[in-house]
Request: fold
Amino acid sequence: MHRSDSGRETDRPLRLGIMGGTFNPIHYGHLVTAQEALVQFHLDKVIFMPSGHPPHKKDGEILLPEERYLMTVIATASNPDFSVSRMEIERKGPSYAIDTVRGLKKIYGESTEIFFITGADAILEILTWKDAEKLYDMCKFIAATRPGYCLEKFKKLHLLPNDTELGKKKPQVYFMEIPALAISSTDIRHRVCKGKPIKYLVPEGVANYIYKCNFYR
Ligand code: NAP
Reply:
């Protein structure tokens, strides 16, 4: 049971979106993805979860967790349905999704329905994630794709919704095509490095913060 926006208690379990990502930096593609998931999946709120130490990335390859966290706070500040968690940036060791989902269930209650939202390429690796099968029981996944993204790789891994591969436990994955994901963090970093504009690709406050701190030069 939780309180709805009107303050009324409601019997249906809380539906929570976790927006998992490195956010190096956060951009409008991420924000549109979270807003679209909120509406399409009737979520009560979306918690942005900047990774502390992404398991597949070397430290030094990306900005510090605190710097990525701050940009995420700046980008989401004006949206009452969004918040940002420090859970992964404060946890020591690699940022495993299973630990995050367990932590959130402790805070919000076991009955909370969790939707882990992230990029399709990250979800594609899900079979290699820590305690993957346990994770499948604890949350559903929303894979955000860029326009023209080919789902063939998901087909090969039997990860498409109607695929029934006997004897195998599978994650529940929903797909969401987001045109704004034509924007990418990699491209933004390259643009800053080459002195090209990033106006309208990231919120103004994020751009100002990037220039002020001299990131990606
Ligand atoms: P990544 O490899 O940096 O990103 C893969 C692709 O997904 C990129 O194209 C990226 O675009 C896009 N993307 C990333 N986050 C997104 C989001 N929230 N919404 C839309 N597109 C997104 O992946 P990552 O950021 O390291 O990892 C993604 C999530 O998976 C994180 O929460 C991470 O902790 C989790 N993960 C967990 C495990 C595990 O539990 N073992 C292992 C790996 C990843 P941009 O570069 O433009 O963002």
